Amino acid sequence: xxxxxxxxxxxxxxRGPELVWDGGRRTALTxxxxxxxxxxxxxxxxxxxxxxxxxxxxxxxxGRSTGARCAECARLDRAHSVAADxxxxxxxxxxxxxxxxxxxxxxxxxxxxxxxPARLLExxxxxxxxxxxxxxxxxxxxxxxxxxxxxxxxxxxxxxxRAVRSVLPATAAERAAELAELHARAVALGGRPESLAWEPFxxxxxxxxxxLAGVPAAVGEVTELVAGGRVGGELxxxxxxxxxxxxxxxxxxxxxxxxxxWELVPATGEWSGVPVREFxxxxxxxxxxx
Length: 290
Fold this sequence. Notes:
Helices cover about 20% and strands about 30% of the residues. By secondary structure, the protein is an alpha+beta fold. The longest helix is centred in the middle third of the chain and has 16 residues, at about 170-185.
């Protein structure tokens, strides 16, 4: 019987995207690499736990959940996060950023200075720019100021990000235009925290890093994995947690967060038994493309 592996997600390093497996093993992902695996027959997707601890109940979780956590572990995980405002005494410096995912889709967020641009790569930001740096609560107040005064969201659903990747402007200057305008409006606002040092605008473009230039538009996205299902394709691009895989039917997007909690085994061949939602401009969606 083939050995089963459990995947803890996609991580971005200086070398590019990597799949991380329980136990610390990493698989580097390069363009043109064959990505192929199956879900163990009779398997059940189980909760991945919280804050590095296993779920005490080994609870089953839904195949479509991107968090792969039961309700209790999800609560514990969020209770100790920056987003929950439970770490107000964190002494580390933070940065406020503006991220652009496509036309009309810009958000504001914060990340620890020590993490560099990792958070932006994880989110699939097509381009971004730093706004300022300072203590955590000053960064948080600035984020709230932009949300209230400029109506800039702090969250954009991944489904919306995927939908616009095929219609991105052709040049880096065009992709940065909305960010530049928003940065100028943010700097002009009153009521800014004095402890936050503002940074001049400089856009960082990720189209090349993600491999999106010249990649055909995706025809659909995986909605969930199922026991006994198979996935196989050539990696042509990756953005955030998403892998863009070329198959005989076209490019299909696989959100690697759907892998967590499953036992995965080596497999060959094309897709089998995995539901895919077809992308259709201005129409409804259809499950079961493959």
